[in-house]
Amino acid sequence: MIPMLKNHLLLMVLVSFVWGGLTGCTSITGNSSSSQNSQKTSENNLKITTEIKIAGSSSTYSLLKSVIKSYADKHPEIKITLLPASNSESAIAAVKDGILQVAAVSKQLTAKDIPNTLEYREFAKDALLVATHPTVKGVVNLTTDNLKAIYSGKAKNWQEFGGPDAKIVVLDRPEDESAKKLLRKYYLGKDLPNGKDTVILNQEPDLITALQSTPYSIGAFALSQAISNNLQVNRLSLDGVEPSQNNIASGKYQMVRHIGVVTQKSLSPSVQKFLDFAVSDSMRSELTKMGLVLPEGKK
User: Fold this and answer.
1) How many CB atoms lie within 10 A of CB 25?
2) CATH 3.40.190.10 residue ranges in the chain?
3) CA–CA separation, 140 and 163 (whole Å)
């Protein structure tokens, strides 16, 4: 492993607590009262009547946490549990078996992709951003050929692209993750080998943490994470196209994730109300501020 990364990656266990909602089990209900009288009132009048369990792709959790918090504040009688992140397929299987009520996925699905008892709903589009650590000065755009050279390890120094005289540190995701699949689909190609010094990180929060703390690094993650958390990274244009909301909506920037959920076709009233709230006007404004683009018709 690259020496400069050793200390940074050792710290990830601690940093992961900051991202607890992304990878840990989080139960969210409405605001609790501080006084004894208010607590008694809450116990008597605001009893939890329903629990909604959600799990899925970690790249969806930023959106989900925002929706869940807003909904829980308005509906304290509903307990919403965000379970540890898993892959989409496992979460979908858990919905089919009745273990979960909602599976969060980061790819577009069709009816043939899921059992006929389940239904897919798309909530938003989120760009997959390619970004660098702030130490990579002078690099604002990379071409497809540039990305191939970097991710294959053929290009080793940022000077080759107008940047500083420093070794390129590539942070990447596993081949079965949506981020790597999108990179291959639009820029890298299916057969490009990974560079021998590439650092593979299993969870998106881990990659974000490593990118922020590793000088001269490059990696790909959700644009919504960069915007909603005000991350201090260099957001790159690719082939001259900026990863902006306008370019996502128009289709000019094509490397996007389709954030959606899978549920049973027959929904309980509590799950239906939660899903309706997720696409309501009040949530539309909040999600747009995060850098997400809602599909047509979700107005």
Assistant:
1) 12
2) 16-124+263-289, 127-250
3) 9
pLDDT one-digit tens code per residue, 8-43: 444 333 333 333 333 345 555 554 333 344 444 344
Amino acid at 218: I
**Percent of the chain beyond pLDDT 90?**
67
Q: Detail the DSSP E strand segments found in the chain.
A: 26-28, 50-56, 78-82, 102-105, 118-132, 141-142, 169-172, 199-200, 217-222, 234-235, 237-238, 256-264
CATH class as words, domain 16-124+263-289: alpha beta
Asked whether the predicted pLDDT for residue 86 surpasses 90, the reply is no
**Cα–Cα distance between 257 and 254 in angstroms, integer?**
9
Question: What does the alpha-carbon distance between residue 283 and residue 288 come to, in Å, rounded to a whole number?
Answer: 8
What 8-state DSSP symbol labels residue 295? P
42-81: string of b/e by CB count within 10 Å (b at 16+)? beeebeeebebbbbbbbbbbbbbbbbbebbbeebbebbbb
**Distance separating the N- and C-terminal Cα atoms of the chain:** 47
Model confidence, pTM: 0.77
Query: What is the rounded CA–CA span in Å between residue 184 and residue 289?
Result: 28
Per-residue pLDDT of 97-112, as tens digits, reads 999 999 999 888 988 9
Nearest CA among 267, 257, 258, 259 for reference residue 100: 267
- Alpha-carbon distances of 11 from 7, 16, 85, 214, rounded to whole Å: 6, 9, 20, 12
Distance CA 260, CA 231 (A): 24
Q: Are 173 and 201 in contact (CB under 8 A)?
A: yes
Rg of the chain on CA atoms, in Å:
21
Mean pLDDT of the chain: 85
CATH code of 127-250, in short, is 3.40.190.10
| Residue partners of 267: CB distance under 8 A and separation at least 6 | 275
